[in-house]
Amino acid sequence: MKSFFAFLLFVVILLSCSAKQSSERKKLADKINTTASISYTKSKALEIIKTGFNAGDGYSEVWIRDYNTFIELASEVYSSEDLKKNLLVFFRMQGDDGNIIDGFVPKEKAYVDYDYITSELESRYVGHKNTVETDQESSLIQAVYKYIKVTGDSSVLSEKIGNKTVLERIDWAIEFLLNHRFSEEYGLIWGATTADWGDVQPEHGWGVDIDENTHRAIDIYDNAMLLIALDNLLEIQPQKKKKWGQLKKGLTQNCRKYLWDKNKQKFKPHIYLDKSPFSEDFNEDEIYYFGGTATAIEAGLLSKNEIKSSLKQMVALVKKAGAASIGLTLYPAYPEGFFANKIMNPEYSYQNGGDWTWFGGRMIQQLIKYGFLKEAFEQLVPMTERVMKNDGFYEWYTIDNQPRGSGTFRGSAGVLFVAIQLLEKEIARN
């Protein structure tokens, strides 16, 4: 009899919790539906994506790290053939060692003073690669995966480019990272020293090319991006498990072993393969990388409790900085003068602590996927409100929430559009 009453009590508690959750979801659904900036952001995103595939009004190029974040939005208004055309250009311009370019532009619009890349397989465009980055290969693989998910067209993998299929070229791109950007000592990939996910190194006024002055470093963003790419590849090509599954396992273990600080519940900014470009008395480990952390969560590197702790730190640091959203790149910023490129100075400018929806939106997506719906809504609204206030998707914002850079930054539109879609879908599911 006692066990029966205990069971009955358990059922009552369960039903009560379920009713409470249902009520909370309804309240949240009402908030989403009545928040004008959310519906405005969705419609504005669809409006600007119709005007092209370049990163924004400040860029002529189609960049792969940007295209990867708005290809899902683009699928709402473009045909699968249009989406695929852009992807195939990157494969046609793949380097002789398997590397993937950053972006391409029509030859007649190649105005920027870049050392342009050409290819016999692609006569219409010239390309460019910021060699300080190590995310182009991973970004293209992720974009191909998203293309297949939104269109259902897996035939792209067997498309022949030169003497290789797209799938063979994907493998070749990963081989490039292992041959040219892999540290045997740490079992992780490396790039130049940059601020979190950024593409500007400290040593030069422009700062986008690796040279003899570069300080090679390992960070969480590059490795998490490769992990996501490997996850994507293994899902669409499970027969590759033997080939790439071991790499994924090693990267996962080594990210946790070398980059995750369990005591501080944060990722270390860098592991230097030689030495740091910064002064010895500067404690870089105090800096919190927002974008790299969001990417690591997407890569499955953190537990739900660690995600909760990460969000708590982000919110606290945003408040401490006086910023507007968890798009904050990092905190505290690198001191003035640490980067030769003037756009990284003063502190909290551009990638040195600017507020980027482009990455904050990705964190919101992960909060939704891990069930933090209320928190996701709370962090989403400051971003959608400034979209409506400024009538567009700006590249980044200052600490006091003033818009900067391109006013039609499609990466920001893409991540917010997907975040809103995910939130609405999850709320409607129950």
From TrEMBL:
<dbReference type="InterPro" id="IPR012341">
    <property type="entry name" value="6hp_glycosidase-like_sf"/>
</dbReference>
<keyword id="KW-0732">Signal</keyword>
<protein>
    <recommendedName>
        <fullName>Glycosyl hydrolase 94 catalytic domain-containing protein</fullName>
    </recommendedName>
</protein>
<feature type="signal peptide">
    <location>
        <begin position="1"/>
        <end position="21"/>
    </location>
</feature>
<dbReference type="GO" id="GO:0005975">
    <property type="term" value="P:carbohydrate metabolic process"/>
</dbReference>
<keyword id="KW-0328">Glycosyltransferase</keyword>
<dbReference type="Pfam" id="PF17167">
    <property type="entry name" value="Glyco_hydro_94"/>
</dbReference>
<dbReference type="InterPro" id="IPR008928">
    <property type="entry name" value="6-hairpin_glycosidase_sf"/>
</dbReference>
<dbReference type="GO" id="GO:0016757">
    <property type="term" value="F:glycosyltransferase activity"/>
</dbReference>
<keyword id="KW-0808">Transferase</keyword>
<feature type="domain" description="Glycosyl hydrolase 94 catalytic">
    <location>
        <begin position="40"/>
        <end position="312"/>
    </location>
</feature>
<dbReference type="InterPro" id="IPR033432">
    <property type="entry name" value="GH94_catalytic"/>
</dbReference>
